[in-house]
Amino acid sequence: MNSPMGARRLILAAGGLACLSLLAAGAWAQTFPSKQVTLVVPFPPGGGPDVAARVIAEKLAPRLGQAVVVENRPGAGALLGASFVAKAAPDGHTLLLTPNTMAISPHVLAPGAGGGIDVNRDLLPVIAPATTPLVLVASPSLGVSNLKGLLEQARKGGLAYGSPGNGSPMHFAGEMFKRSAAVDLLHVPYRGVAPSLNAALAGEVKLLYTGVGGALQHIKAGKLVPLALTEKARSALLPDVPTATEQGVANVEVNAWYGVFAPAATPAAVVQRINQEINAVIRLPDVRERFLGAGIEPLGGTAGVLADFMKADTQRYGQLARELGIKAD
């Protein structure tokens, strides 16, 4: 049985360890960053996440006093890039900027895909810098301008819709629309946002679910016709475009958020520093202007905001994947 003196020594030792931990956290905050910071985007260049990452990297570098480079590591529905970051040194110098595809992929890919990590265990939420609404667009050649016209066409049969890939948020939106509207549309998956947009612009597919970010310039140019937003409310990016619910098709609410994550063991002081600096970046007027011009809505806030997004989407898309029978390639 421990003596009172032994118990006192244990308490003192525990207190000493706590003090050392606080000192270590403070040291991390003071020394970070000590080298180049890499911001990994788990999708090819050119899409919304890549645009957001490059704008943030440009403005973050002078605030940190170190170079911030964007590295694209696409594959396995964001899980390859996520795995690379999860296995990196937990010191804040390797970060992930991903859309919410990462919360969906574990439910639609084979177990072990992308390195077999657990995205909720092995990555730490830092900040949600932006969101982008999803929109259903049509080729002008289809001759429809709203969901009423689309449903009339769809009930004649033979229509297909495109998405950036099986298991993407856009694929979920399409299948939710089919279920709610009781129509049959063939799903045509592409390998990424850019290929799916190119297919819609070329008339290869007459309907496309995509992020407003990629489609905005083509909508403004009249090359794509926006039919409905998959949101609870209209977006300032496309204020004249009604939601699906407004047009009588309920339960088609899917959007995309972008999250910055760090390896799970990254010190809290470093996470807080990165959160603080990115919040400052996205408040800059020119960053806000560039985001909105690219169809991206600035967000920000605490790491807890992103943690809540991740938890909610992990649960929601797990259930929807089972209900709709969605699987990725």
Sketch the major β-sheet: 10 strands, mixed
DSSP, total strands: 10
Helix content: 40-55%
Question: What overall geometry do the principal axes of the alpha carbons give?
Answer: globular
User: Under CATH, the topology of the largest domain is which?
Assistant: D-Maltodextrin-Binding Protein, domain 2
Percent in strands: 15-25%
CATH superfamily of the largest domain: Bordetella uptake gene, domain 1
Arithmetic mean of pLDDT: 90
Structural class: alpha/beta
How many domains comprise the coordinates? 2
The stretches of 5 or more residues where confidence is low (pLDDT under 50) are 18-26
Oligomeric state of shown chains: single chain
Give the helices and strands as they follow along the chain: HEHEHEHHEHEHEHEHEEHHEH
CA-CA gap between termini: 61 Å
CATH class of the largest domain: Alpha Beta
What is the CATH architecture descriptor of the largest domain? 3-Layer(aba) Sandwich
Count of helical stretches: 12
Radius of gyration: 22 Å
Task: Describe the model.
With 329 residues, the chain is α/β, with parallel strands linked by helices. It folds into two domains: 34-131 and 256-324, D-Maltodextrin-Binding Protein, domain 2 (3-Layer(aba) Sandwich), CATH 3.40.190; 133-247, D-Maltodextrin-Binding Protein, domain 2, CATH 3.40.190.10. It is 46% helix and 19% strand. It has twelve helices and ten strands. Strands 1, 2, 3, 4, 5, 6, 7, 8, 9 and 10 form a ten-stranded mixed sheet that branches. Strand 5 (160-163), helix 7 (169-181) and strand 6 (186-189) form a beta-alpha-beta unit. The longest helix is centred in the N-terminal third of the chain and has 28 residues, at 4-31. It starts with a helix and ends in a 5-residue tail after the last helix. Residues 18-26 have low confidence and may be disordered.
